[in-house]
Write a structure and sequence with these properties.
three-stranded mixed beta sheet; single chain; 5 helices
Length: about 120
């Protein structure tokens, strides 16, 4: 099962959904082709009523904990109540393309990593 399918299934099982859109944005980043590492999730639900954005995000982080500990490197969350979504006109701005990140770092381009090393 794909990572995107798992995310969709878990969200629909956990919250009442008025609108759901999940975009795999991995191709905008320095990852191999067909990766499922970077996603944008737009979720509209009544469950968010009265909830601050950070609480909404924490709720989704808990629901998707396994994916965030494993294959998912980045998850952009856009969470709204139906009224908020309507007020926005149902639109979300496009995500920017990656500016290069580690692909310009000589250590990473050679497959080396300094993670865990002391400076």
């Amino acid at each position: 099962m794909s990572v995107a399918t798992l995310i969709e299934r878990k969200v629909f099982e956990a919250v009442p959904v008025a609108h759901f859109a999940l975009e795999n944005e991995s191709q905008k980043h320095s990852v191999p082709p067909n990766s499922e590492t970077h996603f944008k999730l737009v979720l509209v639900s009544e469950v968010f009523a009265g909830m601050m954005p950070v609480r909404r995000h924490q709720m989704l982080y808990k629901i998707l904990a396994e994916e965030l500990e494993g294959p998912v490197h980045a998850l952009a969350l856009h969470t709204h109540t139906p009224a908020e979504w309507q007020a926005k006109g149902g639109e979300i701005l496009a995500s920017p393309h990656c500016l290069g990140g580690s692909k310009h770092d000589p250590q990473f381009s050679k497959g080396e990593s300094t993670l865990g090393e002391e400076s």
